[in-house]
Design brief:
mainly alpha; ABC_transporter_permease; MetI-like
Length: about 325
């Protein structure tokens, strides 16, 4: 009888084939699991970002022809860049001019449209979508469209001016208008992004502030300067920083619309990096220019971070 009960109990409560993990094992699994999900992104970052960045630092200290053996030259690329390369100075000034003109224009246009769209009720979504559409168009396609618009013979802009008896200039072929034409195109292509950011910032401003100001007799213009701009300053700071960084890296417009011409008037730093790397096959020199560009962007961003205390209000 006892033997029967023993066999019955063993059949009812069989020993599990797989042991359940203990608490320590569970903690290890819970700790490792997120990193396993991140592993593909980490590998991609290391292969396609971290390694090329580190390798470009090494390349900048070499005379590195694309089809020949590299030769270590130390800081010679950087010395040549600042002492002997006159074209680099011109390219740098072109880029600074582009940034100085484009950033205020972009911010002013995007802020103006944002304030207007935030003040209307009917059609706001339609206009917002319409103004944001250029962001969705690839920059190459936008550059090709505007290259046709700027055409001096059959372009739409000069055709429109011709109706009023005005002879339009060679927008992309005249050194006086080439860079300005690219800036106008860039503002059209990029203001929608900042516009949406500003709209989000405007919607976060409490309406009670405007109600209190109106009770005190403040006009709309006064409310804009005393309430809207201070409350929107953190959003504006973000927009300015991001626009500056992207403006320093302008490439597609110069490459597609003018090839850096006329007379290198629209040649920018990134396009100059491309020329040295893939046209002149001076990979080491191109890497040195790239790191100078990185240093310039870093310094400008650092200055902006220091200056934000004077005009950005977080409370």
């Amino acid at each position: 009888m006892a033997n029967y009960q023993t066999s019955t109990n063993s059949s009812i409560n069989p020993k599990p084939l797989i042991k359940k993990p203990d608490r320590k094992s569970k903690r290890i699994i819970e700790t490792i699991t997120p990193y396993l999900f991140l592993l593909p992104n980490i590998i991609g970052f290391l292969i396609f970002t971290a390694f090329p960045v580190l390798f470009s630092i090494i390349m900048s200290f070499f005379d590195w022809p694309m089809l020949d053996k590299p030769r270590f030259i130390g800081l010679e690329n950087y010395i040549h860049l600042f002492t002997k390369d006159e074209l680099f100075v011109k390219v740098l000034l072109n880029t600074v001019y582009y940034v100085v003109v484009l950033v205020p224009l972009n911010v002013i246009v995007s802020l103006g449209f944002a304030v207007w769209l935030n003040s209307i009720s009917r059609g706001s979504v339609v206009f917002r979508t319409m103004f944001f559409m250029p962001i969705l168009v690839p920059m190459v396609a936008s550059a090709l469209i505007w290259k046709w618009l700027y055409n001096p013979q059959y372009g739409l802009i000069n055709g429109f001016l011709g109706w009023f008896g005005i002879d339009g200039p060679n927008w992309l072929g005249d050194p006086k208008f080439a860079m300005l034409s690219i800036i106008i195109m860039s503002v059209w292509a990029g203001f929608g992004y900042n516009m949406v950011i500003f709209i989000a910032g405007l919607q976060g401003i409490p309406k009670t502030l405007y109600e209190a100001a109106s009770i005190d007799g403040a006009r709309k213009w006064t409310c804009f300067w005393k309430i809207t701009l201070p409350m929107l300053s953190p959003t504006m700071f973000f927009a300015v920083i991001m626009t500056i960084i992207s403006s320093f890296q302008v490439f597609d417009q110069a490459f597609i619309m003018t090839n850096g011409g006329p007379f290198n008037k629209t040649n920018t730093i990134v396009y100059y990096i491309y020329q040295n790397g893939f046209e002149f096959f001076k990979m080491g020199y191109a890497s040195a220019i790239a790191w100078v560009l990185f240093a310039a962007i870093f310094v400008v961003t650092l200055v902006q971070m220091k200056m934000q205390k004077k005009w950005v209000h977080y409370e």
